[in-house]
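Entry 14. Structure prediction run on the chain below.
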Amino acid sequence: MTDTTRGVWYMAIATFLFALMTVFVKLVPDIPALEIIFFRAVISVAICWWSLKRARVPIFGSNKVMLMCRGIAGVIALTLNFYLIHEIPLATASTLTYLAPISTTLIAIWFVQEKVSPFQFLFFAVSFAGILVIQGFDTRVSLFHLGVGIVTSIFMGLAYNCVRKLSTTEHPLVIIFYFPFVCMPVAGIWCLLFWVQPQGWEWLHLLMVGISSQLAQYYMTRSYQLAEISTVSIVNYTGIIYAIVLGFILFGEGFNLLTYAGMALVLLGVILNVAWKQRQKKISEPAPA
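Output returned:
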């Protein structure tokens, strides 16, 4: 098996594990989003701390301000995302998170001075049209939910741009560590004030949120190490299929044809944007001697 093939398989595993994480989040509807994040952060901090110590890497990095910004943006995005998973169908919540690549690109215009072509704005419009179709033909999704989804994607975009800036100065494990590191005190204070006691199987579901997300992060990282981003990034969009199937089997969630069409438009716009950027990258690369 080639590295590229292994990379594709690892991304498929990571995408499935992220979908499983959303299932476990939805299985604890009475537990507040920040309390779920606290459980996830505790598990993640323990694993990241051990990994950094083993690798003999300074835990807190050098660009602490940017690392904190990445952590704060990630906390807000994840909290809103978990809220949406509780409030609307699984596949719809997953679809709204696919606006993140668009937000990332738009924010990068001023954050890292990235150039955006007119064609990309057309692709963004296609995805946003899909969101409007979903909101218009799925009565379970209100304008408020749509707004939360857009805000979630904006904070995800901010977090991703911080990662891009940090990638040249910080060890990847340090960047990963700061997310649960910021999560723990914020979520911990919330838990002290508004603690909801988990019952029975909820303890296992909360544990599985942390384990599945950490395993997903590992396989996603390994995938990017083994294969080109342009090869494996498209595999990530199979997550919507997992969400539709798992939502139907476990929660009886179904959609009308127009809602499916809206989801397809969102994915089409995002995939066209990724393909366009990869095409432009190849054009700009110098020809081999």
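The mean pLDDT is 83.
Filed with the rest of this week's runs.
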